[in-house]
Design brief:
7 strands, single chain, seven-stranded mixed beta sheet, alpha/beta
Length: 192
């Protein structure tokens, strides 16, 4: 899996004016519909492109958790959060072992992370463990077509392939949308 992980030395491309025009983080956060009291986890939070806008509507009791495999990315996010009074927790690690109790998170975002998983079932089981009943996971991914930027074609997942993987692992699609010409987002709940 290591060869699929985003190179933290290229983190400058994650937050720039061009990206904000084509991929406004607020539209992704809005689609996930995080309530002010919904405990929120951003898996692969990076430097906070989605995490920072997501915590803006945070109620005083809401937990906001950023998890990333890159300590370099988290250091940059810590710096951005230095004067922020919102309740946040930052963890270095991957989604194979999420440092949260069972049934503790309402909303989870995985932006451009899912295609990196060699064994999605392992990660999906861990996400099921921490997700509250009726909680939701938002998966933002690259269309399985040639686009500017993004991972190589052989790593991309079509919407149908993503839905098939999630369905086979006990999840149901509750809503989806095209974010732009290169990216789509699916929201899932645990199937009952």
């Amino acid at each position: 899996m290591v060869n699929k992980i985003f190179d933290s030395n290229k983190r400058h491309v994650l937050d720039n004016e061009d990206r904000r025009k084509t991929l406004p983080p607020e539209s992704v956060i809005s689609f996930l519909n995080i309530g002010e009291d919904d405990d929120f986890l951003d898996i692969g939070a990076g430097t906070g492109y989605f995490f920072l806008p997501a915590i803006e509507n945070s109620g005083k009791n809401r937990k906001n958790i950023a998890l990333d495999i890159s300590e370099t990315m988290l250091d940059e996010l810590r710096e951005k959060l230095k004067n922020n009074k919102t309740k946040t927790e930052l963890y270095h690690g991957d989604a194979i072992s999420i440092p949260q109790p069972d049934n503790s998170i309402n909303k989870i975002l995985m932006a451009f992370v899912f295609h990196e998983f060699d064994n999605p079932r392992t990660y999906l089981n861990e996400i099921k463990r921490v997700l509250k009943p009726n909680g939701e996971i938002g998966i933002l991914e690259w269309e399985a077509k040639e686009t500017n930027g993004g991972p190589p074609m052989h790593e991309r997942l079509s919407e149908e392939k993503l839905q098939s993987i999630l369905s086979k692992n006990g999840w149901k699609l509750v809503r989806n949308k095209s974010i732009n010409q290169a990216n789509y987002m699916h929201i899932y709940r645990i199937a009952k």
